[in-house]
Amino acid sequence: MSDWAEHTHADGKKYYHNRRTKQSVWDKPEELRLFEQQQHYQQQQQHAAQASATSSSSSTVLPPHWKEYLHAETGRKYYHNTITNETSWELPSTNAAPSSSSSAPSSAAAAPAATKETSSSSSSSSVSTSSPTLTSSQSQLQSQSTSSQTQSTSSPTSLSTSNNNSNNNNESSKPSGDPIKMFKDMLQQADVASNWSFEKAHKLVANDERYHLLKTMSERKQAFQEYLGDRKVFEYEEKRRKEKRCRDELVRMLRESPEVSPSMTWLRAQLYFDGDSKWEAVDSEREREDLFRTYVMDIQKREKDDRDNLRRDTMRNLRAKLETNDLINLKTLWSKFKEHYENDPLYQQMDKYDVLCVFESYIRDLEKKEEDTQRKERERLRREARKHRDLFRDFMLEQYMAGELQPTTHWQQFYKRFGTHPTFENLASQTTGSSPLELFMDFREEMTIRFERDFDRLRDMIKDLNFQFIPKQTTLEELKQALSKHERFSILSQSSIPPFLEYLEDREKRRAKDVEKRKKDAIGNFKVLLQETRSIGKHSTWSEVRPTLTSRPEFEELEDESERERIFKEFIEFLSNEESDEEGIIKSDDESKSRREFSKLAKRSSLSAENIDDQRSKKKRRE
């Protein structure tokens, strides 16, 4: 493949560029022209091979001594008789007799078979597609064939006999092998160049016996043209090899020359190498310059690579020295580092920027190692804290399932009971993660949510079962046994039943307190009622006073009749003692104490009398 390629400029004009030497020219280079001729010759060879294949496939229908050829310029088929040298554009008939007065072109045996000649063989005769012109040698051959044809008309038997004998003698004297190949070998041994004409070559090899292996002039010219194509390819390849060899020799000379350095200019190189055979062997000045500059760039690149490698080695050695020095740590300052290494030979030969880069890189690596160590330690502590948290949650769950921990349990109770447990102490000693108090509050909140859900179910189940809770008598087992009869018992959490039993006990206690409080309020209100009733005297009896009090709400609040009567008697006694004080009679200490107590209760009841209506409304709401 050629290094030259055709391109089109912006103004539409074509130019040619060499990919290897980066040279651009307007005129088509000779190297590209030879390459195109080689390509054209190869295409012609392919067409000739196709034509020969077609001729061999149709040779059975051709008359004797007739052969089929393909015109090199027009690509049109023509037919030639090797005996009479008759040429025809039309396919000859099998019964047609050879005639010299044929209407077909007379010299088409030589001219159409020949390929297109180069400018160097301009002395060769040109070929016309309609009426080819005969050369002088062909004219002699045609006159000889005409006379022989006349003789054959008079005595055809003797002609055929003589022809057969001459053919047999010629075949026995022919050298063995391909005639065309031997003809080309003859031209090659004669060193026939690609720009020779057929006439020039003919003068040189006409006396060689291999020249007469090809009988007709057209066959010789066709073989000669094939040889020229092969010779052009050979010369082109040889020229390329020679140019490459010259370029390699020039580069080798530059490599071996001690004067060539990266600072050497092109002008100085021209003056220094002028007259050198290796320098002059490369014809193109531009190509010599490109080779020189490329070699100088390679030297510069190698020197730069050497400097970079040396710089990296010194930096690597300084880094190794820092790693073995225990005085250089994460907290070492740049000023301290310079003071420590200012007399070191390696430090002195290095560039200060490179030293700084090594120092900063080493400190960053130490920081990364320290961060990795701290991160691993934090991760270890987190894993350990997570493990203790999980153990503490499992511990609280075990206590909850065992009934030792309830949703109503307070932190003070839990800490007082389990504060010395190893699980609690291990979690409390951790510096990361949640504390025992936070986990306890989260756990109690979860248990409260679960208990509230079960609490509603338990309350509905007790209502459905008509279960009667008796304080201080109903046990946990009795409650479970009663609840097990309900169909929703299976979905309950067993840990929710003990807190529910505590809830029932607390509810009964609250009810008892409420009843006691209401009774005290009713007693106080009843005493206030007795004081406000003016018709009651110290000689009044309960049977007389009761009908007057039955319509009052204070009377109805105190439902116990015996309690009403007892309070009435105390009130009568209070009135008697009060009247005695007015008369100046001194009573005993017990009587004085009972009077003070009744007066105090009456006074407190009078203060709460204002809220009687509110208490009644609360009672109605509770009912």
Provide structural commentary.
It is a single chain. The protein is mainly α. Helices cover 63% and strands 4% of the residues. It has helices at residues 30-57, 136-154, 156-173, 179-189, 198-205, 217-256, 266-273, 277-281, 285-323, 334-341, 345-349, 352-401, 411-418, 422-428, 436-465, 476-483, 497-532, 542-549, 553-557, 561-583, 589-608, 612-622; strands at 4-8, 14-18, 24-25, 66-70, 77-81, 87-88. The protein is elongated. Mean pLDDT is 75; it is low at 55-60, 96-174, 584-592 and 605-610.
Write the layout of secondary structure elements.
Layout: E1 4-8, E2 14-18, E3 24-25, H1 30-57, E4 66-70, E5 77-81, E6 87-88, H2 136-154, H3 156-173, H4 179-189, H5 198-205, H6 217-256, H7 266-273, H8 277-281, H9 285-323, H10 334-341, H11 345-349, H12 352-401, H13 411-418, H14 422-428, H15 436-465, H16 476-483, H17 497-532, H18 542-549, H19 553-557, H20 561-583, H21 589-608, H22 612-622
Antiparallel strand pairs: 1-2, 2-3, 4-5, 5-6
Helix pairs in contact: 1-6, 2-3, 4-6, 6-9, 9-12, 12-14, 12-15, 17-20, 17-21, 20-21
